[in-house]
Amino acid sequence: MNEIIRSDIFEQAITRKYRAKLWSKFIKAIKEYQLIKPGDKICVCISGGKDSMLLGKLFQVLHKHSDFPFEVKYLVMNPGYNEKNIDLIKMNLKILNISAEIVETNIFEIANAQTKSPCFLCAKMRRGALYNIAKKMGCNKIALGHHYDDVIETTLMNLLNSGSFQTMLPKLHSTNYSGMELIRPMYFIRERDIIGWKNYHNLKFLQCACRFTESCAIDENASQRKFTKELIKQLLKNNSQVEKNIFKSASNVTLDMVLGYKKGGKRYSFLDNYDSKDHY
């Protein structure tokens, strides 16, 4: 009974107190990008952090009140967390009344044995494992907890560090797992509002639970994402529309004014049609 009462408190906060900041933006992304269709079987992937835990709760509310049929399952893929972190995840699942399947893997062990790019390998393996497990669970989609701030930071990081204009899409077909799709229903939700929700309920979630960072002296301030966050903060001091403009730029690309672009693995140059009559 206490768990049911506590669950109702979380649901009411999402649909009332945080309706505009969380619930409405969650629904907006689902509708605008057609993330869920009748008959979908969605695997909500919970890492243990604040974002994925909120995603799990949002899906619970959606499934309860949805006007069309779809199935939802909750997955915690354990890449090798220590016992303390697993206990914290289990405690939060109980508090939020989310029934999730916990699947053990040895991804941290394999990735950390590599001397070159263990973080890249770990991320790649974790994504592959999520698709694989979700497919075995009978799901056709995996839902991840990436939010608005992740989108603009990723867009800017690609521009500054990779010399390419790429964003984080709201949905993606898997290239390695036929029939599987990745969706990001928290696409419009701001990180500050997720933190507000977490603090309102006095919840404590995982920060970084990576075994690699546990065993070596990595300065978090040196990470590219943290640097990008700080850069955006500085830019906001002179232009309050910076975040909005970075986000909007990915849907406002003028191909006539770029030197080139890639599509389907093929490169195109502005010179390809430069002298054609259709160009001017």
Structure, briefly:
The protein has 280 residues and is of the alpha/beta class. The protein is 48% helix and 12% strand. The protein has 11 helices and 8 strands.
Q: On the 0-100 scale, what is the average pLDDT?
A: 90
CATH class: Alpha Beta
Uncertain parts: 213-222
CATH superfamily: HUPs
Largest beta-sheet characterization: 6 strands, mixed
Rg calc = 20 Å
**Strand proportion:** 5-15%
Distance between the termini: 71 Å
| Count of strand segments | 8
How many individual helices?
11
User: Helix amount, in percent?
Assistant: 40-55%
CATH topology: Rossmann fold
- The total domain count is 1
Kindly report the spatial arrangement of strands forming the biggest sheet.
3-2-1-4-6-5
Secondary-structure element order, N to C = HHEHEHEHHEHEEHHHHEE
Q: Per CATH, which architecture?
A: 3-Layer(aba) Sandwich
The structure class reads: alpha/beta
Morphology call: globular
How would you characterize this protein structure?
The protein is α/β, with parallel strands linked by helices. It has a single domain (2-217), classed as Rossmann fold (3-Layer(aba) Sandwich). It contains eleven helices and eight strands. It has helices spanning 2-17, 19-32, 50-65, 83-96, 107-112, 118-136, 148-162, 191-200, 211-214, 224-236, 242-249, and strands at 41-45, 71-78, 101-104, 141-143, 171-173, 181-183, 260-263, 266-269. The strands form two sheets. Strands 3-2-1-4-6-5 form a six-stranded mixed β-sheet, with helices on both faces. A two-stranded antiparallel ribbon has the order 7-8. Helix 1 (2-17) packs across helix 2 (19-32), helix 7 (148-162) packs across helix 10 (224-236) and helix 7 packs across helix 11. The longest helix is centred in the middle third of the chain and has 19 residues, at 118-136. The radius of gyration is 20 Å and the shape is globular. The termini are far apart. Residues 213-222 have low confidence and may be disordered.
